[in-house]
Structure formats: C-alpha cells, structure tokens
Amino acid sequence: MRQKGLALVLVLWVLTLLTVMAGSFALSMRRESSIMFGMKTRAEAQAFAEAGIAVAELMMLEEDPLNRWDADGQIYEFSFDEAVIRVRILAENGKVDINRAELDLLLKLLRHAPIDVDMQARVANAIIDWRDQDDDTREDGAEKKEYQAAGLRYAPRNQAFQSLEELQMVLGVDAVLYDWLEPFITIESGQASVDLDKASAELRYMLESEDNFAAKPITGKSDAENAVPRVRAFSPTEQGGEMPGEFEMQEDDQAQPGRPASGALTIVSEAMVGEGVTAGVKVLVRRSSNSGQTFSVARWQPIHSKVHSLFAYEMENY
C-alpha cells in the first residue's frame, strides 16, 4: 500500500514537472513569435519610410509649383498599402550652422533648449571655443583646462566641426540636449545667419521670439500657433504617378523638368504601420542648381530617437 502511495506521488510529481515544462515552452514560443512579429513589422515600416525618400525626391522635381514639395519644413502625409508615411524636407541654409553662428544666434536657439538658464551661455561659448583656432578660454567657455577639470581626456579640436555628432563632445552637451538640437543645426550652410524663409516653423519661432527665458521644447501642443509645422495630406496617385518601389542611390539618375531648391537638403521620412509601429530614415542630399544634375546622397541615417517624431503633430490642428 505504501509503495502504491509513493508511486502516485511520483506520477503526480512527473505530471507537474511536464506541465511546467509545457507551459514554459508555450510561453517561450509566444514570446519568440511576438518578437519576430515585431521585427517583421518594424522592417516593413523601415521599407515604407525609405520609399518615402523616393517620393520626396520625385516631388521636389515636380513641374507644377503648386504640387512641388518645398524644403520649408512642412510635413507631407500620404498612405500606401497599410502604411501611413510622413515626409519632411528641410533646407540646410534654414538651420543654424554651428561652424559659423555667432554667440547671439547660438543663445537664441539655446534659450529654448531643455537645459538650465545658466547652462545656455556655457554651452554656446563652449561651442565657439571648440571650433576657434586658439586656446584662449572665452567667458563662460571651455578649453583644455575646463575639459580636464571635468574628468575628460580630450580637449577642443580648435577646428571646424566635421560632423554634427562631434557636437556631443563639447562640454555641457549631453545626449538629451544633442537630440533636441540636431534638427535645428547644420555644418552644411556655410552661413553665419539663418534663411528664415527656409527655416522650419519651430526654428523660425525660436529665433524670432523675444521671450528671454528657457522655454520647454516646442511640440504640437504649443501655445504658439506658428511654432509647429503644417501637416498636408498628399496622394501620389492623384498626382498622376505611382508609388515608387525601393529607393536606389544611383549616380546616373537624370533630373526631371522640374527643379528643386538648390543646395543641401535633409529629407526625413517616417512610416507607421500596424498598431503604431514606426520607423524612419533621415537623408542628407545635395543637388546642383543646374538642370540635368543628379541628387547625391551625402548621408543616410536610420532614425532611432523619437524626440522629434513626425507623428507628434496632429493633422486636425491645421
């Protein structure tokens, strides 16, 4: 009788173990399936975002000026298949050139940044100290001694910025500040001033604002009506064309009769599929003002930060 009881306990123990193993296996499979579905959905969103770059390239060459897409920071939205795609084109001469901007212009931008008021002048002067060709520390600036005091093992290059990412090495510029600044700055314009006609709505508002305080980053909920970009609905098929396929960076692309704005441009494309899954890409392109020249892609960068998502702006607000 005792042996039968032990056998029953053993059988129950084995059944319990098998049940736990089966449940664990099912949970593992469910998680893997969810991960694979998420990866597939994100890959689809990325492909749609890249297609948005091709659409932008075509629309900048549109003959009809009423249909041609402008590099003024407004957002164009269209749907294709199950995706909603938003595209924004920004002229580099409508941004603050961190290699050329004087202190006043840098301060106008930084006073709206998500940093303390006392950090605004420090960061602005540290930017100038990084790019100037001397070792003299500006008031509130930073040269080698200040970097050493901060525990950093490098000093300012005392040369022009070679990339936007280099700005993250400047004393006082952390990841949060850089992510906020990135859409508003450039090293491409070569100008000390900003062409406000080509500036984004957010940057134009900040540079023209007389508010002498550190404002919160501007979003679609801003009280300033003109501080957010317009969102325009667009249908590629209504323009007499078809949605292009995969975007290819070909050197022998020929220009269409229309002519886009000359100079360097940033094209931002973001796609949303499924239940709010988004992916984006940002491309820096250059084009000669002469008809017949091609777009050349200077930089191709996937978007990881959601700080300036194109889907942060509501269509019904405009």
From TrEMBL:
Checking InterPro entries in the record gives: GspK (IPR005628), GspK_central_sf (IPR038072), T2SSK_SAM-like_1st (IPR049031)
Q: Which UniProt keywords apply?
A: Cell inner membrane, Cell membrane, Membrane, Protein transport, Transmembrane, Transmembrane helix, Transport
Cellular component per GO?
Answer: plasma membrane
- T2SS protein K first SAM-like domain: which residues? 97-187
Residues covered by region (Disordered): 235-261
Taxonomically, the superkingdom here is: Bacteria
**Compartments, as annotated in UniProt:** Cell inner membrane
Q: What Gene Ontology terms for biological process does this UniProt record contain?
A: protein secretion
Q: Which SUPFAM superfamilies match?
A: GspK insert domain-like (SSF158544)
| Cross-referenced Pfam families | T2SSK_1st
Q: Would you identify the family this protein belongs to, as annotated? A: Belongs to the GSP K family.
Q: What is this protein called?
A: Type II secretion system protein K
